[in-house]
Structures are given as C-alpha cells and as structure tokens.
Amino acid sequence: MNHAGKVIEGLMRAELDRYTAANPVSRRLADRAAEAFPGGVPLHWMRDWATPFPLFMAEAKGAELVDADGHRYTDFCLGDTGSMFGHSPEPVVRAVTDQIARGVTAMLPTEDGIAAAEALASRFGLPFWQVTTTATDANRFVLRWARAITGRSRILVFNGCYHGTVDDTFVRLVDGRPVHRPGLLGQVIDLTDHTRVVEFNDVAALEAALAPGDVACVLTEPALTNIGMVLPDEGFHAALRHLTRRHGTLLVIDETHSISTGPGGWTRAHGLEPDFLTLGKPIAGGIPCGVYGFTAAVESRMRHVQAGVPHGHSGMGTTLSANALAMRTLRVMLEEVMTDAAYAGMVALARHLARGLEAAIARHGLAWHVTQIGARVEFHFTPAPYRNGGEAAAAMRPELEQLVNLFLINRGVLIAPFHNMMLTSPATTEEQIARFLHAFDACAAALAGHA
Ligand code: PMP
Fold first, then answer.
1. CATH number of 90-337
2. What does the record give as cofactor (predicted)?
C-alpha cells in the first residue's frame, strides 16, 4: 500500500473507533437485530453505510434526524431522495393523519387520485397517468407496455444506469461487451438477449443499436445519477429523441432522481419530449407511490393492443397501488409541497452548498469536482466530470467514499452512503449548510495531499 493509502486507512481506523464509542445504543440494537435479520438489517442496502454497525434512527423531521443515542444530524441524504422535500412535511402529516382514519385501501378510486393526475398532467405536459407502488414498478410496467405496443422484444439502457430492481436493466458493458451486472442474484435468463447497452453520450453507438429496428424503448435518466453524476453533452438529448423517433423506438425518461431539477423535472426544464415519464420515491412524501405518464399517441396504441385481450392479468399492477392514502398524499405533495417557491429555495441552497464545496476543495488542493442538478449535489474524486458510466465506474474510490461518509456522520452530518450525494430540502437552512461545510473542510484538510 502506498503512503496515501496508509493515511486513508489510519484515518478510517480512528473514525471507526470514534463511531463505536459514541453509539452504544445503536450497537445494542444492532446486536439484537442480528438475531432477527440476516445481516442485521431488514433491507440489505442499510448496510451500505460506512458505519461498522447500523446507525439506528429514532426520529426525523425536516432536514434533521435524531439517532437512537440521541445525536442530532443534519440530513443531506434524505432517504436517498425518498424524503427530498424534508422528513414528514406538515401538509403530509395532516393528510396522512386524516386519511388513515378514513380508510387506507379499498381497491376503488378516489377523487384525490383525479386531482393528482391532473396536477401531474399540467406539471409534466403528459395527459395520461397510471399509479404504482414504487418507481421500480413504474419502470417495469412501462417496459412491458413498450414491448406490448411496439411488438418488439428489445430495450436499450445506458451503461451505469439504475432504474430500480428491474432485472432487464441489470446489464453492464465490460470491455465493450454486455454482461449481467455483478451481484445480480438468482436470475436464470440471459438478460443480454433482450437488453442492449451503450455508453451515455455515445450517439454513434446509440444509432447502431437502434438501427436494426427491434428496440421497443430506450429507458434513461436525463442525466445518469446512480454512478456519480454524468451530465448529457450539448445536443445529446436532441439526438436521442431524433434517433428514437426515426427507428420507431419509444423514449422513456426516468425522473425519479432528476425531479431535483425543478417542479417539472429535467423534462420540463429542458423541453424533453418523452413518450413515457416515470417517477417515484419522494412524490408522496415517502409514502410508497410511483407514477408513469404517457402521451395521447401511446394511450391510443395501448387501447389498440388491449382490444381483444381478455381483461385481467396483464402482468402489471399490485394490490396496494393507488390506494386512498397514497393518492391523498400524492395530491398534497403536488399541490402544497413540491411548489415553485419550494424549488426556488432548494436550488438556491444547493448552489450555495456546491460553491462551498468547490471552495474547500480548492483550499486544500484536492483534484476533485462538484456536480449539481437543481437540489442535488455531489462531489467526485476526479478533477473533471465524467462523460459516461464506464468512466464514472473506473473513477470510483470506495475506500475514500466510506471514509468521508463516516467522518461526516461522526460530526453530525448525513450524506448518502454512495457517491457522495447530497440533497437540499425546503427545510434545509443556511446554518445547516455552514455546519456541513465546516465538517467537510476538516475532512478535506485531513486528506490534503493524500487523496
Ligand atoms: N429510478 C431511478 C433513477 C432510481 O435511482 C431508483 C432508485 N434509486 C429507482 C428508479 C427505483 O426506486 P425504488 O427503489 O423506490 O423503486
């Protein structure tokens, strides 16, 4: 190991000790949980944090979280987007409290659902909507629709993408060849038979992959946000739309993370024209809910393929989707929380956060860069932005990511446990950002010359 590696390892040891000493209650709960949950957590992603044992949450409100040992954290992870408008916004608390006493789920539609769909239509410019329980489901069902209405079996995704646990998208490029994403368990189908994968921003590869005319849809985020952040080149989206139209391929834009851009996501801010738009995570304030919207042309093709097919098991939908509670909270989020004014504040704070990070990085001579999509900010351990998922994956520094994550936790700040992701919510304050920048500065100082 080189000198820098030894420095990082030494810092990490000190942070692990500090965390262990400071969190005896979480430690006890972790020991108890290990008897009930394989791996000690109810969802294995909860082990992705850099902590030696899970930090147990006691409660959270706005942009603050309190752990089981009573420490208060400024939360920039915000449930990895699920709570990006703050934990338990007041309008959601009121709506949930009221609705829970009036019936949660009956497999019947409610008027709140219509209001929510109308709000989605005017926000995103797509007339028709369907509701799911998660963003994963929204993507899964859109792939099924796209295949059904085009009669084509293949889909195309970009290298480094993530769209939830949609198996079809678990394909990566390794040395230019498509392979299953490492870690995928129990999948017995060769996903590369039906999924093409090319690098983001590679228009020539995209064109070659669409040219055979057998791709039902391209599914992508407007910018890749799950492998660090990869922003589209100037003109990439215009080329993507042009090529998909030319080859009869539908375009699905997944706004689940890029809803940080503004009230109508990246789609509205940059005038994209998707055939389908998918979205989930924060849209019902953390109450499980996903949605997908589509054009009138798609709706007409859906009706066409449904004619003559027996009604019933389409392979889409789950029992609790679009229940009365989810529809009420979705409506309230759209009407009262995800407002233009809320976004203006969040994005201004994120800009402030990004500038502060850049200043600290420069002050300590680190060759890192910062990216921002509206209220979403990340810092990366390379001097220049990535142009595609392959580059981003090659630049990952897990040991450094873990150290920064734990260093910040030990100083009262939560950022996402992957690729240094931070969100500013309507509840986030200037003081909280100052507190974060103070902790980040200490971390950058410790790493100066070694990272
Ligand atoms: N789309 C994108 C872009 C995502 O990042 C994620 C989750 N990180 C999903 C969809 C799936 O969300 P969920 O796990 O809530 O279904």
1. 3.40.640.10
2. pyridoxal 5'-phosphate
How far apart CA 362 and CA 354 sit, in angstroms, is: 12
Q: 254 in ligand 1 pocket by Cβ < 6 Å? A: yes
Q: Which amino acid, residue 126?
A: L
Cβ-contact 414, 75 below 8 angstroms: yes
**163 C-alpha vs ligand 1 centroid, how far in Å?**
5
Q: What is the pLDDT of residues 120-161, one digit of tens each?
A: 999 999 999 999 999 999 999 999 999 999 999 999 999 999
- The three state secondary structure string of 124-181 is HCCCEEEEECCHHHHHHHHHHHHHHHHCCCEEEEECCCCCCCCHHHCEEEECCEEEEC
Q: Quick one: which of 24, 51, 29, 25 has its CA closest to 40?
A: 29
Taking the domains of the chain in order of start, what are their residue ranges?
Answer: 3-85+340-447, 90-337
Tokens 């889409």 belong to 316
- ipTM of this complex prediction, to 2 decimal places: 0.99
Please list, in sequence order, all residues whose beta carbon lies within 8 angstroms of the beta carbon of residue 258, skipping any fewer than 6 positions away: 221, 222, 223, 225, 265, 266, 373, 374, 376
**Beta carbon of 136 within 6 Å of any ligand 1 atom:** yes
Alpha helices in 234-306 (DSSP H): 236-246, 265-269, 296-306
What's the CATH fold of domain 3-85+340-447? Aspartate Aminotransferase, domain 1 (3.90.1150)
| Bridge partner list, 230 | 224, 386
pLDDT at 8 over 90: yes
Asked whether residue 1 carries a pLDDT value surpassing 80, the answer given is: no
